[in-house]
Amino acid sequence: MTCLKRIIVFVLALVLLVGCAIDKPADPPGKTDEGLGLIPRSRESSPGPHRLPAELKVHFLDVGQGDSILIQFPDGRNMLVDAGGNDDASKVVSYLKKTDVKRLDYLIGTHPHEDHIGSLDTVINSFQIGEVIMPKVTHTTRTFRDVLEAIDRKGLQIRPAKAGVSIMEDGLLAARILAPCREDYDELNDYSAVIMLTCGEVSFLLSGDAEALSEKDILASGVAVKADVLKVGHHGSNSSTSAAFLKAVGPSYAVISVGAENDYGHPHQVTLDRLRKQGVEVLRTDRQGTVLFTTDGKELSFTTEK
């Protein structure tokens, strides 16, 4: 009888123990069991410290032998870096309207060459403009004068583009100018506004037509140039994308804005070989058309449209 009582007591204790375990309240939201390495599903799906609730879009427009880059920020702001040549006005304006752009908060002309600023005057006349940013260098062409006149007619001022200027900084988003580093270059290309665009853990380096001398000055300044995406300088010319500069940037992707069968032989084979040896995936507007990168600050993807 004594043995039977012990068995009954043991069974009752076991039932009570199991019941308590089943009724144990759940951990409060966000609590983790470090010992087991468990992470609640809610944390897995929510934006992390380097992830945006919306996406940044960077469009490398196919404007032939020229440059034009549209940047759309998650909060609705827009930036246009260059606008192709004189013959690209309708293409650029049409693309901006197709992507629902009504205002350009930042309009940047990297340097005064026609294949970069040719359609800036039409863009200025077609959209609301916030800031105009250009390097402190002039040119004698009619194209350059047209841009200045369009700026003047709208009562806009030019903010000088030079190393150290912050275009915008807002939480995980930032756009800073790394060059020009000097005001005494012989070549207009070396006055190019070189822009570092960062979004969380993802970065883009937009180098205009900056050549090896400007690249050398950027590296000498000690500023960080590491980037996931490099807009290759001067349409892939061998005058840009020096070995030292490319190694420092270390991109996963390189975008070359270039016209098909152009008269300059761009992109030059030495540049393509340099990119290939470093394992960089090359995207060319003459082959893939417009390239659109999308990122939330953590993940990076791209599509192309020919």
Automatic annotation (TrEMBL):
Keywords linked to the UniProt accession: Hydrolase
Region span, Disordered: 31-50
Keyword presence, Hydrolase: yes
Coiled-coil region list: none
GO terms, molecular function: hydrolase activity
Occurrences of domain Metallo-beta-lactamase (ranges): 65-260
Protein name: Predicted hydrolase
